[in-house]
Automatic annotation (TrEMBL):
The keyword Membrane does not apply. One of its GO terms (cellular component) is cytosol. The keyword ATP-binding applies. Binds 1 Mg(2+) ion per subunit. Mg(2+) binds at N208, D222. Gene3D superfamilies: ATP-grasp fold, A domain, ATP-grasp fold, B domain, Succinyl-CoA synthetase domains. Keywords: ATP-binding, Ligase, Magnesium, Metal-binding, Nucleotide-binding, Tricarboxylic acid cycle. Residues 271-391 form the ATP-citrate synthase/succinyl-CoA ligase C-terminal domain. It comes from Pseudarcicella hirudinis. Residues 2-210 form the ATP-grasp fold succinyl-CoA synthetase-type domain. This is Succinate--CoA ligase [ADP-forming] subunit beta. ATP binds at K50, G57, R58, G59, V106, E116.
Length: 399
C-alpha cells in the first residue's frame, strides 16, 4: 500500500528519524495558518508548498514550490491545490491534488552548502536480505544515476537475523563522504530509518533527497513509503492511511468484492479464475485479434455473487465490446458457475455486449447446456480455441 509523503514522514518521525517538518492542509487559507504555526515551531521564514499525490517527480511537474512569505504561501497553495499534476509517474492524464504539505525551508544558507543524498531500503529476494542503497547523487533522477553511473550507488546488505550492524551504518556514512558531526548524524539517521523499515513491515523506503543542512543536520526532505499489504493485520492503525482518491475507482470496487482486478486499455473484458489462467486468457485474446480490457481473477470459489460483481465492474469500462469468461471448474463446479452467470445476467438486466463463456473441468457439459438453454445472448465454448474463435467472430461483427 502506498501512502502520502506527509503520512510517511509522520511514521518516520515517530521512530526518531529527523524530517523536514510540515503541516498538511486542504485550502489556501489553512496553508497560511499552517505556515504561521510552522514559523512559531521551527523559526522558519521560508516555506515549501508540496503537492500530496502518490507519485514522484512532483518538483519537476510544478508540484513543489518555494514560498518566501505568507502571501506567496497563499498564492502557491492556490495554484497547486486542485491542479491536475502531471509527472513521469502519473501517466499523461495526471493526478488531481487535494492536499498540500506546508513544509519548513531546510535549504537555508550557513557554514556549508546544503547537500542532497539518496537512501532507500528494500528487500533483495535473491540474497534473502534487506538492502540499503545510498548515493551522493540525491535529489535528481536516481534512475538516471543507476543507468549511467551505477558505481555511484552503494549497497549494503543486512541479514535480517542479526539486523543492521553498527559498522555497516558507519560504512555507509563514510561512503557518502561524511565526516565529523554530519557523519554521526547520518549513522543515527540510518539506524532510525532501518528500525522504522523493519518495525512497520514496509516493502520499500525511498528517501530522496536526504539532506545535509548547512549546519550539518541530516534529515528526510521527501519520503516514499510502501507498506506491505500482507502485514496490515499487525498494523490496524495503518489501514486508515489508505487514500482511495489515489486509486482507480474500479480497482477499489473490485478489491472490496475480493476480486483481483487491473484495468487495461483494450476492448475485451475477461473474467477468469486463477492468475495463471487469466494471463493465458489475455494471450488468447491478443492472438485472436482483440486487446484485453482488464485482468480479472475471481479467485478459486467463483459463485453467482462474485460473477455478478465482476460483470458490473467490467461493464463500467466503456471500451469493453465483448466479455470472455474463462473458468476452470476445479474447486468450483461448472454448472454452479453457469447458473451464476445466468443469474448475474438476469440481475443486471440488459447487458450491452456479447458474452462468451468457456467452462472446463467438473461438470463442463452440464455448464455448457445451462448456458445454451438460458435463452440469453451468451455463447458457450468448451475448448479455449473455440472461445478465441468466437471472440474473433464477435469483434469482426462489431467493426
Ligand atoms: P519530488 O519531486 O516528488 O521527488 O519531491 P521532493 O520532496 O523530493 O522535492 C523536490 C525538490 O524540491 C527537492 O529535490 C528540492 O530540490 C526541492 N525542495 C524540497 N524542499 C525544499 C526546501 O525546503 N527548500 C528548497 N529551497 N527546496 C526544497
Ligand atoms: Mn523526491
Amino acid at each position: 500500500m502506498n501512502i502520502h509523503e506527509y503520512q510517511a514522514k509522520d511514521i518516520l518521525k515517530s521512530y526518531g528519524v529527523r524530517i523536514q517538518e510540515g503541516i498538511v492542509v486542504d485550502t489556501p487559507a489553512q496553508a497560511v495558518e499552517a505556515a504561521r504555526e510552522l514559523s512559531n515551531q521551527t523559526g522558519t521564514k521560508w516555506y515549501v508548498v508540496k503537492a500530496q499525490i502518490h507519485a514522484g517527480g512532483r518538483g519537476k511537474g510544478g508540484g513543489v514550490k518555494l514560498a518566501k512569505n505568507l502571501d506567496e504561501v497563499r498564492e502557491k497553495s492556490k495554484d497547486i491545490i486542485g491542479m491536475q499534476l502531471i509527472t513521469h509517474q502519473t501517466g499523461p492524464e495526471g493526478k488531481k491534488v487535494n492536499k498540500v504539505l506546508i513544509a519548513e525551508d531546510v535549504y537555508y544558507p550557513g557554514a556549508s552548502e546544503p547537500k542532497e543524498y539518496y537512501i532507500s531500503i528494500l528487500l533483495d529476494r535473491g540474497k534473502a536480505c534487506n538492502v540499503i542503497m545510498a548515493s551522493t547523487e540525491g535529489g535528481m533522477d536516481i534512475e538516471e544515476v543507476a543507468e549511467h553511473t551505477p558505481e555511484k550507488i552503494i549497497k549494503e546488505w543486512i541479514d535480517p537475523r542479526v539486523g543492521l550492524q553498527q559498522f555497516q551504518a558507519r560504512k555507509l556514512a563514510f561512503a557518502l563522504g561524511l565526516e565529523g558531526e554530519a557523519h554521526k548524524e547520518m549513522v543515527k539517521f540510518i539506524n532510525a530509518l532501518y528500525k522504522a523499515y523493519v518495525e512497520t513491515d514496509s516493502s520499500m523506503f525511498e528517501i530522496n533527497p536526504v539532506l545535509k543542512t548547512s549546519d550539518n543536520k541530516i534529515l528526510a526532505v521527501d519520503a516514499k513509503v510502501n507498506l506491505d499489504d500482507n502485514s496490515m493485520f499487525r498494523h490496524k492503525d495503518f489501514v486508515a492511511l489508505r487514500d482511495l482518491n489515489e486509486e482507480d475507482a474500479l480497482e477499489v470496487e473490485a478489491s472490496s468484492n475480493d476480486l483481483n482486478y487491473v484495468k487495461l486499455d483494450g476492448n475485451v473484458g475477461c473474467m477468469v479464475n486463477g492468475a495463471g489462467l487469466a494471463m493465458a486468457t489475455m494471450d488468447i485474446i491478443k492472438l485472436s485479434g482483440g486487446e484485453p480490457a482488464n485482468f480479472l481473477d475471481v479467485g478459486g470459489g467463483a459463485n453467482a455473487k462474485t460473477v455478478e460483481a465482476g460483470f458490473r465492474i467490467i461493464l463500467k469500462d466503456p471500451n469493453v465490446k465483448a466479455i470472455l469468461i474463462n473458468i476452470f471448474g476445479g474447486i468450483v463446479r461448472c454448472d454452479r458457475v453457469a447458473n451464476g452467470v445466468v443469474e448475474a445476467y438476469k440481475n443486471i438486466g440488459e447487458i450491452r455486449v456479447p458474452i462468451i463463456v468457456r467452462l472446463q473441468g467438473t461438470n463442463a457439459e452440464e455448464g455448457a447446456r445451462i448456458i445454451d438453454e438460458s435463452g440469453l445472448k451468451v455463447f458457450s465454448a468448451v475448448l479455449l480455441k473455440d472461445a478465441a474463435a468466437k471472440v474473433k467472430e464477435v469483434l469482426a461483427s462489431i467493426d
